[in-house]
Specification:
Blueprint (H helix, E strand, L loop, with lengths): L2 E12 L2 E12 L3 E5 L6 H9 L6 E6 L2 E2 L5 H7 L1 E3 L12 H11 L8 H14 L15 H14 L4 E5 L7 H18 L2 E5 L3 H7 L2 E6 L2 E6 L1 H5 L2 H12 L1
Parallel strand pairs: 3-8, 3-9, 6-7, 7-8
Antiparallel strand pairs: 1-2, 1-4, 4-5, 9-10
Helix pairs in contact: 3-4, 3-5, 4-5, 5-6
């Protein structure tokens, strides 16, 4: 299969801190890949590099065969990469409907769309994630679970091929987490998404991803199927711990 995303020797520094250190990997179309590691391992920084928030100090990022290393975030988004955030980042004083309508207008091939048409399409994505009844609610009045679903709806509304998920379960109770996992899997199947997913809850990511990439102090220390990662001595020592193993 053709690699949809390819990172080659990507390094990102902040002053003297090397947040991402010479990381390389490929993700094929249709894969769900987990990205795990302790706090400070460089996971979110890596997503920021892929989505164009940061440019790497060295190395390259390719998407669908195109070099996107130095592209701005809006161009990367329109090529087909969307993301959710660990801390939801809606427009708090806009309704759920208008939050998603902005994403519709922002996405690829949407520049001449009217606001009415954008709101109609936004309604579809709100319905998909179960938020249609909250369409006229201000984002600041939504619960955390609803904000997570709004993040997902906004990402889907940009018509992505690759979805970057940053700890979508953070702060959710077990029942909400199960609903969120089911929704992500449904979206992946319905829209034919490829997913790179940061998650700290090991039971979730081990059961959801086909392959796991492990970062530690910015370096990739392991990559492979969940079972292999769970038994990897380097990963157990750096992150999982003997109790998990």
């Amino acid at each position: 299969m053709k690699a949809l995303l390819k990172l080659t020797n990507v390094t990102k520094r902040f002053g003297g801190l090397v947040a991402v250190d010479n990381v390389s990997f490929c993700i094929e179309e249709g894969e769900v890949v987990g990205l795990i590691g302790p706090n400070g391992a460089g996971k979110t920084t890596l997503l920021n590099v892929i989505s164009g928030v940061y440019h790497p100090d060295s190395g390259t990022v390719e998407f669908n065969g195109k070099d996107i290393t130095r592209m701005p975030p809006e161009e990367i988004c329109r090529l087909g990469i969307a993301r959710t955030y660990q801390i939801p980042q809606p427009f708090p004083d806009m309704t759920a409907l208008n939050n998603v309508a902005v994403a519709v207008l922002y996405g690829k091939k949407r520049r001449n769309m009217s606001l009415a048409d954008a709101e109609l399409e936004a309604s579809y994505f709100l319905e998909f994630v179960g938020l249609f009844s909250k369409r006229n609610t201000l984002a600041r009045d939504l619960t955390l679970y609803e904000l997570r679903m709004l993040e997902l709806a906004r990402a889907l509304a940009t018509s992505p091929r690759l979805l970057l998920i940053d700890e979508a379960m953070a702060g959710l109770n077990p029942a909400e987490s199960l609903r969120a996992i089911k929704m992500i899997k449904t979206a992946q199947e319905h829209f034919g998404l490829t997913i790179l997913w940061i998650e700290h809850v090991m039971k979730i990511i081990m059961n959801s991803a086909e392959r796991i990439i492990v970062l530690h102090y910015g370096r990739k220390i392991a990559e492979g199927p969940p079972k292999m990662i769970a038994e990897d001595k380097k990963v157990i020592e750096a992150y999982l711990g003997e109790r998990y193993a």
